[in-house]
Amino acid sequence: MHFLKNKKGFTLIEIISAILVLGIVGAVAMPLFDTGNINVSVSGNTVQGDIQYAQELAMTRDQNVSITFIVGADNYDVPADPNGVYPLENRKFPRGTKIVSATTTITFNSFGEKQGATETIYLRAGPPPPGTPPPGPPLGQVVAVTIEQFTGRVTVS
């Protein structure tokens, strides 16, 4: 029996062992890929777009338009347009993302100017770290959405 002399390939035991090791490494590494940072970043960009939409809507309607953010909430309402094409919409953040800054209402006048002082809305992914006093300085994975006074310029950082 000369056909067993030339052993090339892997045995079943070797293949099962390799799959088992890969499974263990994958199970250990998977929790390290946290989507919280991605979710809070996407939420910040969405808030930016919705605030800019409210500003444009105020100029289009030639009247004040407001959008309110409530501390601890995982959602906010996007104003409806006058024609009803885009009705009032409740925008929900991805799981675990919450507003951690003080409750605030952003109002734009008919010129698109933000009423009041410059404001920053903080969004945090996941639960707040233990011992964080609300609405104290946000800690952890945080995105800041800043709305400038007068110009209404919105930036995400």
What does this structure look like?
The protein has 157 residues and is of the alpha+beta class. The protein has one domain (35-156): minor pseudopilin epsh domain (minor pseudopilin epsh fold). Helices cover 28% and strands 24% of the residues. The chain has 2 helices and 8 strands; from the N terminus they run ααββββββββ. The protein has helices spanning 12-29, 36-61, and strands at 65-69, 75-78, 89-92, 97-99, 104-108, 119-125, 142-147, 154-156. The strands form 3 sheets. The protein has a 4-stranded antiparallel β-sheet with strand order 4-6-7-8, with helices on one face. A two-stranded antiparallel ribbon has the order 1-5. Strands 2-3 form a two-stranded antiparallel sheet. It is elongated and about 90 Å long. It starts with 11 loop residues before the first helix and ends with a strand. The relative contact order is 0.17. Mean pLDDT is 82; it is low at 135-139.
| Strand element count | 8
Uncertain parts: 135-139
Q: What is the chain-wise order of helices and strands?
A: HHEEEEEEEE
Fraction of residues in H or I helices: 25-40%
Q: Determine the CATH topology.
A: minor pseudopilin epsh fold
Q: Give me the number of helical elements.
A: 2
Category by helix and strand content: alpha+beta
Shape: elongated
Average pLDDT confidence is 82
Rg computed from alpha carbons, rounded to a whole number of angstroms: 25 Å
